[in-house]
Amino acid sequence: MANDQSTRSSLSEPAPSSTEKVSAELAEIVVFVDGRTEAAGILEFAGVLAQEHGSHLTAVFMQPEPAATSPEMFARGKGMESVIEVQQARLEGIEADRRALFEGIVRRHGIPSEWRSLPYLSSEVGVHAYYADLVVIARPEPAGQTAGPPGLAESLVLSSGRPIILFPPRGTVSRVRRILVAWNARREAIRAAADARPLLVKAEAVQVLVVDHERHPGHGPEPGADIARHLARHGAQVEVRRLSSGGEDVGRLLLSQAAAFHADLVVMGAYGQSQLSEWMFGGVTRTVLREAGVPVLMSR
Known about the structure:
The chain is α/β, with parallel strands linked by helices. The protein has helices at residues 40-53, 70-73, 78-109, 127-130, 152-159, 187-195, 197-200, 225-233, 250-260, 283-291, and strands spanning 3-11, 28-34, 56-62, 113-118, 134-138, 164-167, 178-182, 205-211, 238-244, 265-269, 272-275, 278-281, 296-299.
């Protein structure tokens, strides 16, 4: 278990006036819609985010792999033509269902929107993330494939240069009110906190969590205080909590603290590296990718 000798501190500063406040807008959000999985939760989540931030919402539908039964696999001639027609109708039906759901959500929230459709195994998937201010994508299930060719979610985290929110399977979070920020004063955490700032300043409560600060240089005399002060000056309502892991898995400690804080979102840097075709994540990132029950914003 984590060492109970944790310290807590709160930080508050006068909210900047409208003329002082730095603009931190999410002008464009992109949500990836997987034709193989349930889409209502992730679309509602993206729709609420777009409505709250005045964003344009683009949905990118990824056509699922065609599924053929054993008899269909052996079809020839006109039989094959029939199989192709049946498969095409099935895929069009899946897309029509997802698009109707999306259009209902954007209409209800009054969001400017766009629908894009990609064929199965399109090589252009990642490009649609490059010009977004925020990307939302379903976390794969099972997640955490860290060797061999990466899945799309992991690949976007590592290579897109964009903040990525990974939405958990069967997730139900719609509004982001309480946010946990995993902080260790490293570059990836700095980037994640900066990328998440539009969300942090709108949140009702933000907790900066520092675990085993003595293992990471650069914290300063009061670990977590500097980033908390920085966020508070942008208008965030911030508290700092420092914990010792006591040998516990840090990823699971982070997730248990997120649950205790009733977090709607976790913000963290993604620690990983690429070597040719092999992609690897650090242990904490890997645990969170596999097990988080709430959306997680990752940057790198």
